[in-house]
Amino acid sequence: MDVFEAMRRRRMHRRFTREPVSEEVLAQLVRAATLAPMGGNELVRRLIVVSDPRMVKTVRDVTPSFLANATAVIVICTDLDRAEASMGRQGREILSLLDAGAAAENVALAAPALGIGISFVRSVNESALREVLDLPSHVRPDSLVGVAHPASTPRPAAPRREPVVFRDRFGEPW
What we know:
By secondary structure, the protein is an alpha+beta fold. Helix content is about 40%, strand content about 15%.
């Protein structure tokens, strides 16, 4: 699938079937996440694939913002110690979040080609999520990507609004 077609077809799903996602598809989504850029080309990203139904339910239970009934979750984390050691405070506080977003978007772009739906979430209960996933204190969960077979095709994407784009300086028309 062409990347622009993937961008056009990408959706955030809220309803999924109960059919488990195959290991092969999960591996392809993980591969897509690992192809995302990383600040300083430093390996600070950590991925946790949660597919055991009991664990997925527990992750959902401790993440109130997780509205979807996904059958698997890819948790995108950052090794904060390594990020700071290689890129300083900016790497720890800013670049690592950009990297996590890039990884999540790569998963979102790969999903339509694989017939999979996804949903992004940010945990609002980080301490509970840390406990459930046995995260060490230096690893921060940045994004959760719910992964599953969509229950139905969601309505068409909302009409795209015209972007606000300037040339050379803020306020100068494109």
